[in-house]
Amino acid sequence: MRSEDDLLSRLLDFLHRSPTPWHATANLAARLEAAGFRRLDEREPWSLTPGERVYVTRNDSSIVALRLPEGPLEALRMIGAHTDSPGLRLKPNAAQTAAGWLQLGVEVYGGALLAPWFDRDLGLAGRVHLRHADGRLEGRLLHVDRAVATIPSLAIHLDREANNGRALNAQTQMAPVLLQGGEASDLKGLLEGWIAEQHGLADVELLDFELGLHDMQPPARVGVHGELISGARLDNLLSCFIGLEALLAADGRQGALLVANDHEEVGSASACGAQGPFLGDVLRRVCERLGGGPGEGSEEAFIRLIQASRMISCDNAHALHPNFLDKHDAAHGPALNGGPVIKVNASQRYATNSATAALFRDLCREAEVPVQSFVTRADMGCGSTIGPITATELGVPTLDVGVPQWAMHSIRETAGSRDVAYLTRALTAFCNRAELA
Question: Which residues lie below 8 Å from residue 195, measured CB to CB, with a gap of 6+?
Fold first, then answer.
């Protein structure tokens, strides 16, 4: 129990310190470096040694980490996740004023549930780019970790239909209030002041930013016996964290990889998204340096490596909701704390097939972990993950699994506390697995 408590403590800390994909990637990288992983630069030649542990980032928001085997690189046990979550992002010219208030113009990132964003204490975080006095340009992370904004609800006395399914307009009704009496010109000064406060930088000019709002309520264990985890961005930082824990816990005898892509929530079509070339670029360079046997370093060697490998795409699953039982197929309602969920869709919205599902069921048996299945109702649409995209881009045999959760895409989501250890154990067994066929 102590080890599981420690695992959850690390998870809550990671969630709290990762309000954006850039922060999540930086925190993953810091854990990797503390464990002896060496950072690679995509702009430089790579020198790799069997048995080495390395990682590489792209756009500061996506990361690939590898444990290279001591022997020939014949197969990789790949774990996939994504670093981004739905939310509210600031527009480039975000400052606007109304009724004596400086407000922030926002756009919705991904398929966010909008109603839970109202009446929250909101902080601000993301990436900024600066020009120093000597003309040098630099990117920095910014995390305003205190309540500086809120989106106030309209009183029900002025909107009697508020509880009758009224639609929300993100353009006109969701601009956060930031500063009473503020002018539009004040925003740049506020941001530069927060940058100076956080980084101790003087005489810098803010050139551009990618910033979003985040809930200031910290993640927590909930329930009489702490059986729940509640917090922001569980989809999909929970999978990033579990994948990292499994990679670090692996015995190192097999080749293993963690990829956490940005931009899954908006389709994955970017240079660092799953539909982009990032993972393929990394794997081709690794194969060129370490691929063994005939055709070493060739496209043939790369294809052999991919076909001998397996990918487990980890993205949270829809748990059975006690207030909405009819939203699930009667035979496929995953329970919180019931173990990881194999996600299946006949139309390939998930990449699972019977061969990859059988492998995962055997891994769960080996790790003494319960396993569940999810199929959406036949009369409802189905979401997707990086799994089908990665399988399409690389050709790697793939399955989709995830921890069951409630309130997916809300500003605050809920999962089962025991499921964190369950999936970590299953993925650790995957990283240590000698035979993948």
Answer: 128, 130, 140, 142, 201, 204, 206
pLDDT at residue 296, rounded to an integer: 55
Please say if the pLDDT value at position 227 is more than 60.
Answer: yes
In this structure, is residue 65 part of a structural domain? Answer: yes
The arithmetic mean of pLDDT across residues 224-228, rounded, is 97
What is the average per-residue pLDDT within 273-288?
Answer: 96
* 52 within 8 A of 38, measured Cβ to Cβ: yes
The answer to whether 315 and 236 have CB atoms below 8 angstroms apart is: yes
Question: Domain span at residue 132?
Answer: 87-215
pTM of the prediction?
0.96
Residue 224 within a domain: no
3-state helix, strand, coil in the chain (%, to 5): 30, 30, 40
Rounded to whole angstroms, the Cα distance separating 210 from 131 reads 16
Number of domains the chain contains: 2
What CATH number does the domain containing 210 carry?
Answer: 2.30.250.10
Q: How confident is the model at residue 291 (pLDDT cuts 50, 70, 90)?
A: low
Last residue of a domain, one of 184, 215, 246: 215
Residue 283's SS3 state is helix
**Which residue, 127, 140, 149, 141, is CA-closest to 216?**
149
**138 plus 93 within the same structural domain:** yes
Beta-ladder partners of 213: 124
Q: What percent of the chain has pLDDT above 70? A: 98
Measure the CA–CA gap between 110 and 213, rounded to whole angstroms. 14
